[in-house]
Amino acid sequence: MTVPIDNNIILGVTHLLLGGQLVPLLKCPFCSFKNIHEEEITHHIRYKEDSKHNVDVDKIDKKQYIVTKKEKESRYHYESKEDLPLPYIICLWCDYRDKVERDLEYHFVEKHKDRLYKMKVSPHERRQDSVWTKDPFSWMYDDIEYRLYKAVKLAKRKSGVGSGEQ
User: Fold this and answer.
1) Is there a contact between 11 and 17 (Cβ–Cβ < 8 Å)?
2) What pLDDT does 71 receive?
3) Which of 86, 121, 143, 155 yields a CA-CA distance of 20 to 30 A from 77?
4) Considering only CA atoms, which of 100, 106, 142 is closest in space to residue 121?
5) Is the pTM of this model over 0.70?
6) How far is residue 86's CA from residue 151's CA, in Å, rounded to a whole number?
7) Rounded CA gap, 165 and 133, in Å?
8) Can you say how many angstroms the Cα of residue 24 is from the centroid of all Cα atoms in its chain?
9) Signed CA dihedral, 14, 16, 17, 23: sign only
10) pLDDT value at position 68?
11) Nearest 5°: CA angle at 144, between 139 and 149?
């Protein structure tokens, strides 16, 4: 939980509260690794084996370690779903559209559950679907999961997104 303290301090994002004192939280300039100790971040950069961290640590400006309030804290480094570089998938039964398949599935369950149950799905069709049968846990899923998969697949086809496969 982030609690704003003043304009430049957000507890949990820019600072931590340790022993009653506000301690600035530092961040690796190449990934989302955070720590309160500068030497831990330097160690992280020096020994992390990937192309982003393959730099001379001694030449890095330590000011890059400082976390500011304006930093994006999104997992995808986007402020909102609208900024995601994904096409919209349109609902089969209404004007709703979304870029995230899981959110579209939630919409189907919340608004169109009755239509999902009315979708015709035969056991033969379910066994013949190559993408569905490649999932090692598909035998555990209920019919509603397959109906959701099929509804998203049809919505993607209707929207012209990809090949309709997940």
Assistant:
1) yes
2) 46
3) 155
4) 142
5) no
6) 19
7) 13
8) 27
9) negative
10) 59
11) 80
Taking each helix axis as running N to C, give the angle between helix 143-159 and helix 101-111, from 0 to 180 degrees, rounded to the nearest 10: 120
Question: Residue with structure tokens 């169109």?
Answer: 112
Beta strands in 25-116 (DSSP E): 26-27, 34-35, 89-90, 97-98
What single-letter amino acid sits at 112?
H
Contact (Cβ atoms closer than 8 angstroms) between residue 41 and residue 27: yes
pLDDT at 122 > cutoff 50: yes
Q: Are strands 97-98 and 3-4 parallel, antiparallel or unpaired?
A: unpaired
Q: What is the DSSP-derived secondary structure letter of residue 97?
A: E
Distance from C-alpha of 23 to C-alpha of 115, rounded to nearest angstrom: 54
Helix (H) or strand (E) holding 89: strand 89-90
Q: Are 135 and 115 in contact (CB under 8 A)?
A: no
